[in-house]
Amino acid sequence: MATVTFDNIKKRFGPTEVIKGVSLDVADGEFIVIVGPSGCGKSTLLRMVAGLETITEGELRIGNRRANDLEPMDRDIAMVFQNYALYPHMSVAQNMGYGLRIAGLPKAEIAAKVQDAAKLLQLTELLDRKPRQLSGGQRQRVAMGRAIVRAPSVFLFDEPLSNLDAKLRVQMRLEIRELQAKLGITSLYVTHDQVEAMTMADRMIVMNAGRAEQIGTPLDVYERPATLFAAQFIGSPSMNVLEGEGREGALWLGAARLPNPTGHRGPVMLGLRPEHLVPDPEGPIAMQVQLAEPLGANTLLHGKLETGQGFTASLPGVHTVAHGGEILRLGIKPENMHLFDRATGLRLG
Amino acid sequence: MEKRVTFKGWLLPLCLIAPQVLISAVFFFYPAGQAVWQSLFIPDPFGLSSQFVGLGNFEYLLGDPYYRASFVTTAVFSTLVTLASMIPALFLAVMADRLVKSAGTYRTLLIWPYAVAPAIAGVLWMFMFNTRVGVVSWYLGQLGYDWNHVLNGTEAMGLVVAASAWGRISYNFLFFFAALQAVPRSIIEAAAIDGARFWRRFFTIVLPLLSPTTFFLLVVNIVYAFFETFGVIHTITAGGPQQSTTILVYKVFSDGFVSQDLGSSAAQSVILLVVVGLLTVLQFKYIEKRVHY
Ligand SMILES: Nc1ncnc2c1ncn2[C@@H]1O[C@H](COP(=O)(O)OP(=O)(O)OP(=O)(O)O)[C@@H](O)[C@H]1O
Ligand SMILES: [Mg+2]
């Protein structure tokens, strides 16, 4: 168990900078999720912690020890790969015990540790199988088992669930979280799935193009997104972002007059989460509904505003739309309105 | 769903396999049959008539100490050629695989020897080690070693092995290199995180993953050592000194075409055929089982 500290970490591949300075203090036992779109540098960041990529600039400390120049094996970490990276010619037991064998532990001790881990992960029946004789979910478990038998200080996960079907993903998500809580091992978990990020993280880093847009608890990020990017990336369906203007003590979307929660004047970007909109005959927002997606518990309504901008609302219950489109009036509470600077995308107020 | 292509009549399929069957018949089955037939006769010295001797040729061969020695020579030779062409190839491939930059250049350079025909490679090596004018033998002489593969059987064996293996290294290198590149990076990385250093990873992870390629090359190289090294041996030692480099194939040639003992030569071909058949069956039966993971 250990803390992990990123001190202005940068990574360049040749001339291209892919990590542009990330700083973060990970507490002992914390579960950090690194989330962001494809190519933003999540894996690169994780691989720098693992020692599989060199750190171009900045300092990485694992358990208060400078780790920049340590070999992967000397960092006391374990990693679960996206494709599991199991050794195909070894049985499940051999896969799990490989690290211990390399460390030179006696056979009996290795067997005992493998047994313990297998019991924890319900793999006892499968110990003699080869990886190719396992299902995707079982392979995933073996990869987890290989990570936990060595009792590392830090777990690293690189999109471990992305090859599983939706249902199994939900189940494994819970299992990983439970296991991590039980073992209390500091974890860094990479995903591009914002639901995984929201449900698993103690804190998450929202990454974009090599930068950390926001670091905070899932609710923090959801309720007070620090940037326009974080606002749009977290939350499903994604937040409506509209050009607005603050003047005369109100916020104007074209001709629609909304309350101005920050009192900010001049052009701004206004973010409204679809699920925060409520039907209100007196509401300022007039939406022409073009398509309804009933999801059972709620309905997604897609359409556009008078200004012509696309707009999505998520309303509880079942809604149907007349063909040709009806005008729906919507309102929103001022505390659910997010204002961002037009130029920098930073949160206002 | 059945993915097999099915034909209505029998004429088209027949036409499609006919070329294969014809070529096999003309160049393999007919000569093989001839060899089997001839191995039962002893022709007279003028080749005008021949006498049926049944299995006499075989009986004579198996009692012939020279023939038995040739078996041993072949075993030693093919083992050495296989090892000497595969181990350096694997080593070079591992080294080239570690390179990030200029791996392409090295790969190209390493392939060149394969383009040299065996007989020419033989001549090349013969000149390098020529007892009077050879560059290498001269240097060895300077170092106080008196190289003479014309008289020394061990040296002769070493030279034909080197000359035969040399060009094969390129061929084997290509296969090993491709196989190494196909080993998933994340598996190597997982092993590195598990604490295995380079050579440990190589022996516990990479080598087992290469086993299908290794097995394939083993078969191909043994067959090469048996049959395709004729040119090298013929140019460098012609089987000598004192038959120390006379492998089975070379003996078929020298007994048949040089000594004109056609009956014995045919019998030797038949034995060779059986030996290679057995070897292949053995290899596939016992080794292949273990290379699939
Ligand atoms: N070895 C490399 N050489 C050059 N560029 C690289 C290398 N590895 C990654 N990159 C680049 O760095 C950027 C970040 O890559 P990275 O793999 O970290 O993305 P990611 O966030 O994990 O994406 P994904 O969700 O698709 O896995 C990408 O633009 C990628 O092209
Ligand atoms: Mg990635």
Automatic annotation (TrEMBL), chain A:
Protein family: Belongs to the ABC transporter superfamily.
CDD domains: ABC_MalK_N (cd03301)
Residues that span the membrane, as ranges: none
Organism: Roseovarius mucosus DSM 17069
EC id: 3.6.3.20
The protein's name: Carbohydrate ABC transporter ATP-binding protein, CUT1 family
GO molecular function, one term: ABC-type transporter activity
Biological processes annotated in GO: carbohydrate transport; glycerol-3-phosphate transmembrane transport; glycerophosphodiester transmembrane transport
From TrEMBL, chain B:
Main subcellular localisation: membrane
Organismal lineage: Bacteria, Pseudomonadati, Pseudomonadota, Alphaproteobacteria, Rhodobacterales
Domain ABC transmembrane type-1: 71-283
Record's keyword terms, sorted: Cell inner membrane, Cell membrane, Membrane, Transmembrane, Transmembrane helix, Transport
InterPro entries: MetI-like, MetI-like_sf, UgpAE/MalFG_permease
Pfam families the UniProt entry points to: BPD_transp_1
Compartments, as annotated in UniProt: Cell inner membrane; Cell membrane
Listed name of the protein: sn-glycerol-3-phosphate transport system permease protein UgpA
Quaternary structure and partners: The complex is composed of two ATP-binding proteins (UgpC), two transmembrane proteins (UgpA and UgpE) and a solute-binding protein (UgpB).
UniProt family annotation: Belongs to the binding-protein-dependent transport system permease family.
Chain's role: Part of the ABC transporter complex UgpBAEC involved in sn-glycerol-3-phosphate (G3P) import. Probably responsible for the translocation of the substrate across the membrane.
Transmembrane domains' residue ranges: 9-30, 71-96, 108-128, 156-180, 201-227, 266-287
